[in-house]
Each structure stands twice: as structure tokens, then as C-alpha cells.
């Protein structure tokens, strides 16, 4: 936990999921910069404030006790983080949560604070969605640490909101202030990007913000040839499903198996639903947001398919993969298996040996290793 001080008071924050050895903070200089500027506006107590891509609640938590706050984010894990920090600070149920800009309440916001996401297509879609929720008097600012602030972010703000002014750097953070024009009107959301896969032959669609939005990522490509095709009536989970390609390819080869697709990105889940319905119309499936297999019952799954992420926002590492592996080990039945792909340098083989009785290399490329870990 860390204490975060702003003009709106002092709050206690923690990252989510929590790790006992985690030295990273739940807030940074960009959060502080955004709140400092907002405090200078001296908004009335009944002001409506929208916070966008607030990873752990560093924006929403200080503001929740002051204004009417809406939090827009594609991340289910971020929603859990914000809810946890609100509860820690006795502010539970004080923020409205929205995952899709199309679902924003029909109001205009006095202020919009945006954390610039890693995926600029996600930012673009969010800016399109908030156009009808700001007026010429709305304060709109996007913030980021300078090393994570691409020039294109300012271009998007200029295109969809209005003239942009970049701030001076403060503690390695910078803000982009956008002045909404008077003639902002609704625009259609970004359409899904569609591409094809040869083996198996699939047509896949991805919404904005998804990793490898316009192509099949190399890790998934490496894993596809090694998916099991003799599963019978097994219970299969595609963990961190993205657009659902692993589950769909597996389901086509295993007509009696039952599938659950899990991701923390709402856009990924919607993409997976589109793709599943396209290739497996009428076949039952459970597609839902979750923090991995944290809520799964023990000994309830036969097979887990996983191409784990190696980053959380801009933080690179194997912490999320490690958590997925431990969750999979607990959810798998005694005869169950985890099929996983990872970069060679991450050494998943040695890590998996700590939790699984048998770890077998199924295949490899110059960059990736495909493994089967048996419970």
C-alpha cells in the first residue's frame, strides 16, 4: 500500500492483484499532475467528472468523495482495483463504472481526466465515444509519464476533441490539454478489424484496444498446432482468451468438449463472442470477464489453454503469467493439463515445474516455446 496526497485529500492505495514483494506504486506523477490541475479549477461539489483508464484508482478514489465520478475502462482488473481502493477508503459504491463509451450516461462532464493507454486504438475509440459528453466549457486533459506518451496521442485528441496544448514536464510527467470545440457531434465507434488465419481456416475480428489487433500474434501461432484434438467431453478454459482463437480452433476439433473463455478486457470478450458465433453458431459457451481463474472451483477443469500476457499496462514481467499458472494448477483436475506458450527467455519450463508433476516441451520456434504441464 502507499499513501497518495493531492489537493483532494489523502487516500491509501494498493495495486491489484497484490503481491507481497511488489515495490511498484499504485499512483505516479501523471496522476498527481492531473489532480493538481483539476484542483485549481475549483469545481462545484455537484460537478460530474469522468476518469478514463484509471488503472488502480489513483484518480477515482480522491475524487469520489468530492464529485459525481464515472470511471471508464476496458479492464476488469482495473475495475477490481478501483473498487478495492474505494472500499479501503470508505468510499464503496461511490463511483459509476462503464466499460464501453457507448454506455456512458447521457450527461455532459465538467471534467474528463484520461490516462493515455498503451493501445492507441483504445484511446481513439474512447475519444470518439466521449465527444457527445463534453461541451466547450469542459476541462479535458490526458496525462502520462513522458516515456509512455506518444505524439499520436495528441493528434487523436486534436482530431476528436479540439486544439491541444502540451504542458511543461513535471516529475517526468506531461499533460495534453484539449479544448473542446462547439461543433462536436456523434461519430461511429471504430469498427472491428478482421483478418484471416490459414490453419485452421478462420476469419477473426478484433475490437479496438486488443493486442495484435490486425494479425495473429506469433505466440498464438506457435501454440495452435499443438492443441489437443482428443478431448472428448472435457471442460476446457481459454485463459486470457483475447479474441478467442485458441478456444475456437480447439472447439472445432473437439465437438463434445465444453468451453469457457476468460479475459480481463471487455473488448476482447466482445471480439471472442463475435468470433465464436461466426464459427460455432448455436454451440454453448461461457464467455466472461474475470481475474483469471481466481473464482474457479478446485478440480473443475480438464484443460487450460493459455498464451499469457507479459505486461500489465507498461510494466513488463511475468507476474501475471505466474498468477495464471498457480490458478490453473488449483483449478485443474488431477489428470488435467495446461497448454502454454511463452517467450524463450521467460523460462516458463522451470517455473511450471514448481507446480506441476510433469512439464513437457511440445514444440519451439526461434522466439517461443510450447509446453504441456500436467497436474
From TrEMBL:
Source organism, top-level taxon: Bacteria
Q: Which residues cross the membrane?
A: none
Tell me which residues make up the Methyltransferase small domain.
203-372
Does the keyword Transmembrane belong to this entry?
no
A GO cellular component annotation in the UniProt record: cytoplasm
Query: Where would I find the RlmG N-terminal domain in this sequence?
Result: 1-180
Instruction: For this UniProt record, give its keywords in alphabetical order, as a comma-separated list.
Output: Cytoplasm, Methyltransferase, rRNA processing, S-adenosyl-L-methionine, Transferase
InterPro entries (UniProt xref): DNA_methylase_N6_adenine_CS, RLMG, RlmG_N, RsmC/RlmG, SAM-dependent_MTases_sf, Small_mtfrase_dom
> What Gene Ontology molecular function terms does this protein carry?
nucleic acid binding; rRNA (guanine-N2-)-methyltransferase activity
Return the CDD domains for the record: AdoMet_MTases
One Pfam match, by short name?
Answer: MTS
What is the official name of this protein in its record?
16S rRNA (Guanine1207-N2)-methyltransferase
Amino acid at each position: 500500500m502507499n499513501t497518495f496526497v493531492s489537493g483532494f485529500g489523502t487516500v491509501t492505495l494498493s495495486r491489484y492483484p497484490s503481491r507481497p514483494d511488489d515495490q511498484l506504486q499504485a499512483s505516479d506523477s501523471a496522476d498527481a499532475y492531473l489532480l493538481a490541475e483539476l484542483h485549481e479549477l475549483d469545481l462545484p461539489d455537484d460537478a460530474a467528472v469522468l476518469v478514463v483508464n484509471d488503472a488502480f484508482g489513483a484518480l477515482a478514489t480522491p475524487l469520489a468523495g468530492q464529485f459525481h465520478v464515472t470511471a471508464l475502462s476496458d479492464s476488469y482488473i482495473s475495475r477490481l482495483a478501483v473498487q478495492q481502493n474505494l472500499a479501503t477508503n470508505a468510499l464503496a459504491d461511490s463511483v459509476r463504472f462503464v466499460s464501453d463509451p457507448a454506455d456512458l450516461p447521457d450527461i455532459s462532464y465538467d471534467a474528463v481526466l484520461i490516462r493515455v493507454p498503451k493501445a492507441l486504438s483504445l484511446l481513439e475509440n474512447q475519444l470518439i465515444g466521449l465527444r457527445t459528453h463534453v461541451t466547450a466549457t469542459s476541462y479535458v486533459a490526458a496525462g502520462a509519464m513522458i516515456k509512455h506518451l506518444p505524439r499520436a496521442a495528441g493528434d487523436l485528441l486534436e482530431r476528436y476533441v479540439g486544439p491541444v496544448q502540451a504542458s511543461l514536464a513535471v516529475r517526468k510527467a506531461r499533460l495534453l490539454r484539449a479544448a473542446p470545440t462547439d461543433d462536436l457531434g456523434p461519430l461511429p465507434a471504430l469498427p472491428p478489424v478482421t483478418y484471416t488465419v490459414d490453419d485452421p481456416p478462420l476469419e477473426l475480428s478484433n475490437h479496438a484496444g486488443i493486442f495484435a489487433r490486425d494479425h495473429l500474434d506469433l505466440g498464438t501461432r506457435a501454440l495452435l498446432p499443438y492443441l489437443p484434438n482428443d478431448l472428448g467431453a472435457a471442460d476446457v478454459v481459454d485463459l486470457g482468451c483475447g479474441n478467442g482463437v485458441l478456444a475456437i480452433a480447439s472447439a472445432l476439433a473437439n465437438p463434445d468438449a465444453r468451453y469457457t473463455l476468460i479475459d480481463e478486457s471487455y473488448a476482447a470478450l466482445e471480439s471472442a463472442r463475435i468470433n465464436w458465433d461466426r464459427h460455432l453458431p448455436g454451440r454453448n459457451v461461457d464467455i466472461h470477464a474475470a481475474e483469471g481463474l481466481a473464482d474457479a472451483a478446485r478440480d473443475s477443469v480438464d484443460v487450460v489453454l493459455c498464451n499469457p500476457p507479459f505486461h500489465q499496462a507498461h510494466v513488463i514481467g511475468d507476474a501475471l503469467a505466474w498468477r495464471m499458472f498457480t490458478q490453473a494448477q488449483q483449478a485443474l483436475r488431477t489428470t488435467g493439463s495446461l497448454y502454454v506458450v511463452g517467450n524463450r527467455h521467460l523460462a516458463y519450463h522451470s517455473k511450471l515445474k514448481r507446480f506441476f508433476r510433469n512439464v513437457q516441451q511440445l514444440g519451439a520456434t526461434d522466439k517461443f516455446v510450447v509446453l504441456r504441464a500436467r497436474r
